[in-house]
Amino acid sequence: MSLDPNHYAATLRDNVAAIRERIAVACRRADRDPADVRLLPVTKTVDEARLRVAHAIGLHEFGENKVQEAQAKSEAMADLEGLRWALIGHLQTNKSKHVVRFASEFQALDSLRVAEALDAQLQKQGRALDVLVQVNTSGEASKFGLSPDEVETFVRQLPAFHSLRVRGLMTLALFSPDETLVRPCFVRLRELRDQLRQDAPDGIAMDELSMGMSGDFELAIAEGATTVRVGTAIFGNRATPDSDYWPGFAGTATTTP
User: Fold this and answer.
1) Taking all residues of the chain, what is their mean pLDDT, rounded to a whole number?
2) Is the overall model pTM greater than 0.90, yes or no?
3) b/e per residue, 211-226, with b = 16+ CB within 10 A?
4) Of 17, 148, 167, 213, which one's alpha carbon is 20 to 30 angstroms from that of 189?
């Protein structure tokens, strides 16, 4: 089916407005300023034509999970001004050279080998990259990310990588419609961030908490999220299974991004 840009633009505007209103309501409940919460649209499986419409209505920052998909889109849309790409999925060291060509942000740092590979590639290009450390707060073996107990030691080694600008932490909560299971994942990340802030190494910032997706971002905001990653609530359901993108995803829980 061909895309009707005007109809799709109207749909996107409505969806984004609804998400921003939900963010505002969640912030009011938590006595927070909505301006302190960034909406990061997650665009995995969204094709170039739709992304161009999204850009035209004012969405200039996109989050992608897979390097190859993200790079292809960034190259195809290089003519658009002000477009910023955030890689939010697991990264293998051999793909670091591709990431530094297009990404402005990497939210899934959980390995010193990846940190070293990124830093080496970034130094070749004379640029820096914003990064968040991924933490496995749900404790699921299927998920990437450091265990909470590993994070402090890991963060203390990051100043050695001068091209990485460490901004904070990221997590994927348990995929469940049960709030009592999801909320503790967000609480754990916030408490860990607050602990690390007290004695962070020079040059390491612990300001950002990237947590919360389409089905659970209000909970994340209540617990201090500064970035929420929202995909399906903006762009609609995907044909590609979420398990292709998020380790540990099982079924139709409401927390798909």
Assistant:
1) 93
2) yes
3) bbbbbbbbbbbbbbbb
4) 17
